[in-house]
From TrEMBL:
Family of this protein: Belongs to the polysaccharide synthase family.
Name the UniProt record assigns to this protein: UDP-N-acetylglucosamine 4,6-dehydratase
CDD domains xrefs: UDP_invert_4-6DH_SDR_e
SUPFAM superfamilies in the cross-refs: NAD(P)-binding Rossmann-fold domains (SSF51735)
Gene source species: Vibrio ishigakensis
Ranges for domain Polysaccharide biosynthesis protein CapD-like: 28-322
Domain of life: Bacteria
Gene3D superfamilies attached to this UniProt entry: NAD(P)-binding Rossmann-like Domain
Listed InterPro entries: NAD(P)-bd_dom_sf, Polysac_CapD-like, Polysaccharide_Synthase-Rel
Amino acid sequence: MDVADLLGRAPVAPNKKLMSQNISDKVVMVTGAGGSIGSELCRQILSQKPKVLVLFELNEFNLYQIDQELKATIGRLKLDCKLIACLGSVQNENRLINTMKAHSVETIYHSAAYKHVPLVEDNIVEGIRNNVFGTLACANAAIKTGVNNFTLISTDKAVRPTNVMGATKRLAELVLQALVEKESETTFTMVRFGNVLGSSGSVVPLFKKQIRKGGPVTVTHPDITRYFMLIPEAAQLVIQASSLAKNGQVFVLDMGDPVKISDLATRMIHLMGMKEFSKSNSEDGDIEIKYTGLRPGEKLYEELLIGDNVEGTRHQKIMTAREEKIDYKSLSLILNNLDESCRNYELNNIKNILQQLPINYLTYK
């Protein structure tokens, strides 16, 4: 089964000039380089012939895997690119500064994050530490070492968030937007996209596994919809947006219409050569689609932009919008309070701080 068959639209073609602008013959660093998006970013970056590619990753096995794969690609294609594998946490600013300084990093793609909604909901402190303070540490290190371009991989769940993961990603965006006020050589930008087909934790590998076992395929709600894109599309969007960036902008991809998850499940069942159960064909069907109820913090539908002030860019499928910010001084006070509450594991305080932010955070009941 080809994952692209599930998309329901033509993949967005990349602009070659935008793809190479911040990468070709430059020193590029990817945080979370061993993750689903991070590893695809590395593959796409390598195709644009950087001088050096720094892989920054916390998970040793994931780093080993992507390092081995890219070394093989460099050898096969005879590319003139130095590959550097760095173990480290994005929460460790000294490690980040040392890495960026040692290799004179020019472009950063910040992909490292905790992205699984239920896990972050149950591990609030670690979610905030990694997604918010990890982004802050990485951005501060970029400023201190004179990095030219810093791009944050964000999510549609950051828009009017109903879960902690989405709230942490919106706060990470606000951190970068506030840092724009500081005089520095670094241009900050954020890229939001929807669900990535085939990435770790996405519904596609889960549904595939459930169908192979004979079902049922579990969908939380009959009407739940999501925007979808392919992993290469997501990586290409990030790279191109960093080339379009003016400081503090949020970019989103025109991903067509949202897809009903129940329709996606049905399409997958058919592509795998089977039929779904329904009231009309309960005898002929092979696989049941079972509705399990919305999970805590889960929305029926996602949005990509908060406001209506959407503008086009040089890429016909990439849009931008300027959204509400918090000034650096005010945000610093909020982050200090949040840091103290995280240190003391004061979960109620943490939730109160998130709810008081101008991010339209609505907790589930």
